[in-house]
Amino acid sequence: MQDLSxxxxxxxxxxxxxxxxLTACTSNEEPTNTQTVGGGGGNxxxxxxxxxxxxxxxxxxxxxxxxxxxxxxxxxxxxxxxVELKEVAAGxxxxxxxxxxxxxxxxxxHVIVLxxxxxxxxxxxxxxxxxxxxPVVNLDRAFPDALAYRxxxxxxxxxxxxxxGNYIAAQMKAKNISSPIIGEIxxxxxxxxxxERSQGFRDALAANGMRVANRRAAEFTVDTGQxxxxxxxxxxxxxxxxxxxxxxxxxxxxAAIRQAxxxxxxxxxxxxxxxxxxxxxxxxxxxxxxxxxxPSMASxxxxxxxxxxxxxxxxxxxxxxxxxxxxxxxxxxxxxxxSKYLPLGF
Length: 346
Hints:
- By secondary structure, the protein is α/β, with parallel strands linked by helices.
- The chain has 2 domains: about 30-155 and about 295-330, Rossmann fold (3-Layer(aba) Sandwich); about 155-290, Response regulator (Rossmann fold, 3-Layer(aba) Sandwich), CATH 3.40.50.
- It is about 40% helix and about 15% strand.
- The strands form 2 sheets. Strands 2-1-3-4-5-11 form a 6-stranded parallel β-sheet, sandwiched between helices.
- It is elongated, with a radius of gyration of 20 Å.
- The chain starts with 5 loop residues before the first helix and ends in a 5-residue tail after the last helix.
């Protein structure tokens, strides 16, 4: 059975011919475009309250999206004078992350925010923390047991596929291509989020009388994106559209496309990396759009963890408690709106 730890998601080599884009996506420098909320205005929850300690854990920042998760969480915590963020190392796999988090439980933070290597493998930790009286805010990788978390925040994986499929269908109809040849480069197939993305893509295409002609699964890394894209391009000597699930993985996909000297199709990315948005705005590659899966969820997680610990509610809701589940919408970034979304890129 393949190793499905987050480490496997994060490790990837540089793609030939993609050096500039790779640097933009995976630089270890602190980005200036972290996404935070609060700090003033008419928000009643911005006022300082009970001082709280929030434990935080996420995999090592070896991938642009993961780096943005950690940077956003830290920036949001700094925005509140009443929050202390206690970060613990995630380790090399789910077992190591669980050990680090168990140590955190003994320190009794008011709430724990984490992005797990694997939601299923860390489910038992969530149950342990919740039983000990520490609310858990889970990011991205769903815990299967609703008792394992107080709040779960995810991107809309199914909606990503729908957004990508709808954009491609609209473009094909605008070009009067009745039976388009469409390719797909997914992430790790065993992961539920990959399956949800592909299902949404299939459903949106089917609603428009279209289908995927060839699909390859990569591993959310540059080198596997390049490898699988090369194989897909060989299998489809002509293509009208391509959806790649992940913009960091897309660095390798674009490298393979350049190496094959192919440009007869349009490509849609996934997640909303800053370098991808810049390429879309420049309109000088096959990449014409990307669908969002924003790491801003980490900023929201810190803000809501603070409210949970302080016993406050969300100011715009009538209900007295922070919700149990939040799923962020997936939006489509094109040349026309790229400047609007660029500050949100990671």
